[in-house]
Amino acid sequence: MSGPARSAARADPVALSGVSFAYEEGPEVLTGLDFAVREGRALALLGRNGSGKTTLMRLLSGGLRPSAGTLAVDGEPVAYGRKGLTRLRTTVQLVVQDPDDQLFAASVGQDVSFGPLNLGLPDAEVRSRVGEALAALDIAALADRPTHLLSYGQRKRTAIAGAVAMRPRVLILDEPTAGLDPDGQERLLATLDRLRARGTTVLMATHDVDLALRWSDETALLTPDGLHTGPTAATLARTDLLRRAGLRLPWGVAAAGLLRARGLLADTAAGPRTPEELAALAD
Ligand SMILES: Nc1ncnc2c1ncn2[C@@H]1O[C@H](COP(=O)(O)OP(=O)(O)O)[C@@H](O)[C@H]1O
Ligand SMILES: [Mg+2]
User: Fold this and answer.
1) Torsion of CA 268, 271, 277, 282, to 10 degrees
2) DSSP state of 146
């Protein structure tokens, strides 16, 4: 369509513009929303419970259709027919919060192969994608395990592997650390780092401000008066925005304020994002 224009300024892989949405018989959850997922970002979508994170993610992945406005892939509006949705699904994959809402096949390998099989890919290609996805999630040994015998963390990894097997450019995860123990959370973040190193853009919804500060480089904050997007460190230092969003200050930002007040951290220096970084600053 707009070939020359697009080569001049590359369009975002996926973007919502002017999007409004209401569930049946409900008030509008999102109104006139603009949101672009920029290639290569580690993007956190932050908001309190009920602020619309899941709704926004389902709009981005095509599970819900905006009542007004558009969803675009590479700058082109998505057609909600079979072809358009296939194009969307090979660009964007959503991993829902509860793995039990996503897993349905008898074994891990079968579940992860469902998406690629559905794309009509040749068997050899399906096998190689499934192998790659299981390896990426560190669950190759579970390939033949019945899904109902998996632990919660293993089910979560299997659900993510199913999305990764589609080789999406944008991987969207709804509260991926919810229900994981600290070690499970560390493993997940390490996995996301590996996927990002391979070029996958990752968008994560969470209400955990500390996780967002540590993991993301860009933050989109859902507040009652709209979405505020900006670099993570600056956005999560905005007490006014956080208060409006019903969220607290990340501890790393609070610690940075304290260190600066005591002359232990330069005004321009970045604050700590992890206990290890705080310890290093104290040395
Ligand atoms: N299936 C649904 N039907 C009606 N209302 C819903 C449905 N899902 C969510 N909502 C409402 O939409 C709003 C946003 O919900 P949601 O997107 O799930 O927020 P979050 O993921 O940030 O917790 C809430 O007020 C919620 O009650
Ligand atoms: Mg949610």
Assistant:
1) 70
2) B
Q: Is the pLDDT of residue 174 over 50?
A: yes
pTM recorded for the entire structure? 0.94
Name every residue whose Cβ is closer than 8 Å to that of residue 178 and which is 6 or more positions away in sequence: 97
| 30, 56 Cβ separation under 8 angstroms | yes
**Residue 243 C-alpha to ligand 1 middle, in angstroms?**
21
1 pLDDT exceeds 50?
no
Q: 141: which DSSP letter?
A: G
C-alpha span between 238 and 146 (Å, rounded) = 47
Mutate to test the pocket of ligand 1, among 55, 206, 207 (most ligand atoms within 8 A of CB): 55
Nearest ligand 1 atom, CA 174: 21
pLDDT over 70 at 280, yes or no: yes
Ligand 1 — pocket residues by CB below 6 A? 23, 26, 29, 47, 49-55
pLDDT of residue 5: 47
183-222, pLDDT tens digit by residue?
Answer: 999 999 999 999 999 999 999 999 999 999 999 999 999 9
Domain ranges of the chain: 250-283
Query: What values do phi and psi take at 63, rounded to 5?
Result: -70, -30
Which atom of ligand 1 is found nearest the CA of 51? 22
Ligand nearest the Cα atom of residue 50: 1
